Amino acid sequence: MNKKSVRDVEVSGKVVFVRVDFNVPLEDGKITDDTRIRATIPTIEYLTERGAKVLLASHLGRPKGEVVDSMRLTPAAERLSELLGKPVAKADESIGDAVKAKIAELKDGDVLVLENVRFHKGEEKNDPELAKEFASLADLFVNDAFGAAHRAHASTEGIAHHLPAVSGLLMEKELDVLGKALSNPERPFTAIVGGSKVKDKIDVIDNLLNIADNVLIGGGLAYTFFKAQGYEIGQSLLDESKFDVALGFIEKAKKLGKNFMLPVDIVISDDFSASANTKIINVEDGIPSDWEGIDIGPKTRELYADVISKSKLVVWNGPMGVFEIEPFSHGTRAVGEACANTAGYTVIGGGDSAAATEKFGLADKMDHISTGGGASLEFMEGKALPGVVALNDK
Ligand SMILES: Nc1ncnc2c1ncn2[C@@H]1O[C@H](COP(=O)(O)OP(=O)(O)O)[C@@H](O)[C@H]1O
Ligand SMILES: O=C(OP(=O)(O)O)[C@H](O)COP(=O)(O)O
């Protein structure tokens, strides 16, 4: 990476404003997945062990510039304290005199979690005044929030114009791993794209066709391709505006000599529930009008697993079916297991794909599970991430 990291600057005795992504899922005020908090520990410990005073700033949810009590960062601060095995202070604001007073009390190596930065309207607008307020708290800015690096906000981008600005260790690792995967990929390189966000993901397929050897499609994304090819898809997910784009990808793959694979068989269901009737059909048989496609079928699972097993690099973004409901989870599990068992390097991106690998007990067997969904997708599309662009060059 051509950007400076915490390793390139003096941090001892400095007040360091670290932007993290503590946007974790909460249920009844309890954190249900602390992956994103755990992922920032190396940066926090790097700084505290060298005697920095660490301020942690994050968003949580989308409070739209209002103070929303259920979106306070208190549970995240408590979890962090458990993970670090030491007390962590918490402020009820992210700027202002009360925060400055708390910072004045910090000793070298202490940690203070600031309140949700999105309680201020200026955060998402990247308001320069708010960015200056954040900057006035510290001597150095460290961006470790890879999950929010695709956002140009006051605490991710704006602040970098007012302080020396470097990346944290998580940010550096995410960019290194994804960057290596995309710039100099080990081959065969297989990209797997599934999930339900057809609009968001279609552009990614375009770029993946340029760089990958195999592109495997699954999940709700597949049905737009089927319909565009003239097959009946019943009630399945569909984006009619993408027919031409979908057919264009099939052509592009042919031209480039790439192995572009769509499911050959699918699991269909007459209801979106575990008690629904299900059938396995070949795609060309067509889906009855009141049924929908909810998973890839057994032949497809085998074909995909075979490609994955022979790959040196696998990038997977988006589940193969509605994995949250057990009878529809087999395709996602099969692809997850194939990724876990391949000798190739595996990168998992996207919140739901990461949750699926966690649910199936496969997370430990993956080489890299990215903390960014939208961020890793934008990176793979070849877009510049504003939170990274704003950091100081080496
Ligand atoms: N065939 C399908 N029909 C409807 N929804 C699907 C289908 N396949 C997968 N999904 C849903 O897609 C969701 C994940 O999509 P998405 O958000 O695009 O993935 P990610 O978070 O991994 O990027 C899951 O909740 C899953 O149930
Ligand atoms: O959870 C996040 O995005 P992701 O679900 O795409 O990984 C990030 O914290 C960014 O949050 P945002 O999409 O509300 O800006």
Automatic annotation (TrEMBL):
PROSITE patterns: PGLYCERATE_KINASE (PS00111). CDD domains: Phosphoglycerate_kinase (cd00318). It catalyses: (2R)-3-phosphoglycerate + ATP = (2R)-3-phospho-glyceroyl phosphate + ADP. Keywords: ATP-binding, Cytoplasm, Glycolysis, Kinase, Nucleotide-binding, Transferase. SUPFAM superfamilies: Phosphoglycerate kinase. Substrate binds at D21, F22, N23, R36, H59, L60, G61, R62, R118, R151. ATP binds at K201, G293, E324, G350, G351, D352, S353. Its EC number is 2.7.2.3. GO terms for molecular function: kinase activity. The keyword Zinc does not apply. It is found in: Cytoplasm. Pathway: Carbohydrate degradation; glycolysis; pyruvate from D-glyceraldehyde 3-phosphate: step 2/5. InterPro entries: Phosphoglycerate_kinase, Phosphoglycerate_kinase_CS, Phosphoglycerate_kinase_N, Phosphoglycerate_kinase_sf. It comes from the Bacteria. Belongs to the phosphoglycerate kinase family. Monomer. PANTHER family: PHOSPHOGLYCERATE KINASE, PHOSPHOGLYCERATE KINASE 1, CHLOROPLASTIC-RELATED. This is Phosphoglycerate kinase. It comes from Saccharibacillus alkalitolerans.
